[in-house]
Amino acid sequence: HPPPVVTSKKEQNRLLRHRPDQPQNPKVLRIAIIGAPNAGKSTLSNQLLGRKVFPVSKKVHTTRCKAQGVVTCEDTQLIILDTPGLTSPFKAKRHKLDKAMLTDPWDSMKHADLVLVLVDVSDHWTRNSLSKEVLQCLSQFPQIPSVLVLNKVDLLKNKFILLELVTELTKGMVDGKKLEMSSAFKHSSSSSAKCPRASPPVNRPPESHCLQETHQAREGSSSDSSSDTRASESGLVAEAAQGLKRHGPRDLENMKGWPCFQEIFMLAALHGEEVDTLKRYLLMQAKPGPWEFHSEVLTSQSPQEICDNTIRGKVLEYLPLEVPYGVVQVTEMWEEGPSGELLIVQKLLVPRKSHMAMLIGREGKVISRIAQEAGCDLMNVFLCDVHLKLKVEVKS
């Protein structure tokens, strides 16, 4: 069970400064999750962590800054770098986003050992190609291993579409070898699809729904010849990636996929389907190295930041169009009650009276629902009773 986040900023800072209680032979993996806005990056991060510490809504740009999540499992620590969706300067200005929204994903890539590229397969407008921003990120850091994650596969009625998407998004190449899709592509009993196979398949648990690629299993072969083969394949991948890095912006505009992915996973992050399969894979990829956080740390965010982000996610969810992006949050009270409950009062400032009416709703139903849902999410994060009160005012 993941640890709760402490409610005291002072205690959280103490934990973050505390020397990690790592085992004798620790392992670590830093994971950057990138993708288009609203692809499900924060939802996947929350599922991997086991608690809802990152804000989620159906609107784009719910995540406003890079934040770290920490998964500690036995001798291994996964550091998840949840980043804002990759966007353009024009869209950033439209949604009143900070300049950091443009640079944070790139900064996360610089510190990552592995990158997960998330694609929303339910969006038929964007699913057939990686965005220009994602391709720029991948080509700028070709030395970082990358994994393609197809998300929201449960929303696809026709699972055969996944065959086309896999071919287009990988350019028919995975881990340095050409994919040879088998003709048998049967529907799975679950919402995830049974993935096409290439030959020879990777050894994986029978319940795994991730793509079977052309390279030999990482586990189970220790001969010199297999080691030479793997080294040769990794060399081919690095060489191909370096070649792509030399391509200019015009070349990237004509690209739809990335031929240097090491693995492909298909899952439904919202419902947690196949997330455990991905998590096991990530734990296996960890390399020997010192932990960065104490095992009781779940996120680098302060308790107040988690609260602000959670409330903002709900505001984004319930207000129409661009309205919620102009809301300013001010915390007026953050106290521990006599029975250990957390008492929070937050003021939401809006630019117009019409926005105030929308946020409060008829008979106060909208603001009450936001407070109730945000309070429940915070109880899950802090594992204590949370009494949240929200007030709405027009900016003076």
UniProtKB/TrEMBL annotation:
Query: Main role?
Result: Probable GTPase that plays a role in the mitochondrial ribosomal small subunit assembly. Specifically binds the 12S mitochondrial rRNA (12S mt-rRNA) to a 33 nucleotide section delineating the 3' terminal stem-loop region. May act as a chaperone that protects the 12S mt-rRNA on the 28S mitoribosomal subunit during ribosomal small subunit assembly.
What family does this chain come from, according to its entry? Belongs to the TRAFAC class TrmE-Era-EngA-EngB-Septin-like GTPase superfamily. Era GTPase family.
User: Which organism encodes this protein?
Assistant: Leptosomus discolor (Madagascar cuckoo roller)
One CC-aspect GO term? mitochondrial inner membrane
Which residue intervals define the domain Era-type G in the entry? 27-289
**Residue ranges of the region described as G5:** 267-269
MF terms (GO), sorted A to Z: GTP binding; ribosomal small subunit binding; rRNA binding
Nucleotide-binding as a keyword of this entry, yes or no, is yes
How does the UniProt record describe the way this protein sits in the membrane?
Peripheral membrane protein
- Please list where the region (G4) is annotated: 151-154
Question: Transmembrane segments in this chain: where?
Answer: none
Point to the regions of Basic and acidic residues compositional bias.
Answer: 8-21, 206-218
Residues annotated as region G1?
A: 35-42
Gene Ontology annotations of biological process type: ribosomal small subunit assembly
List, alphabetically, the Gene3D superfamilies matched.
Answer: 3.30.300.20, P-loop containing nucleotide triphosphate hydrolases
Q: Which Pfam families match?
A: KH_2, MMR_HSR1
Q: Which domain of life is it from?
A: Eukaryota
Region span, G3:
82-85
- Which residue intervals are annotated with compositional bias (Low complexity) in the record? 219-235
Q: Where is this region: Disordered?
A: 1-22, 189-250
Query: What residue spans carry the region label G2?
Result: 61-65
UniProt keyword annotation of Membrane present? yes
Entry-linked InterPro entries: G_ERA_dom, GTP-bd, GTPase_Era-like, KH_dom-like_a/b, KH_dom_type_2, P-loop_NTPase, Small_GTP-bd
Q: What is this protein called?
A: GTPase Era, mitochondrial
Keywords (alphabetical) are:
GTP-binding, Membrane, Mitochondrion, Mitochondrion inner membrane, Nucleotide-binding, Ribosome biogenesis, RNA-binding, rRNA-binding, Transit peptide
Where is the protein found, in the record's own terms?
Mitochondrion inner membrane; Mitochondrion matrix
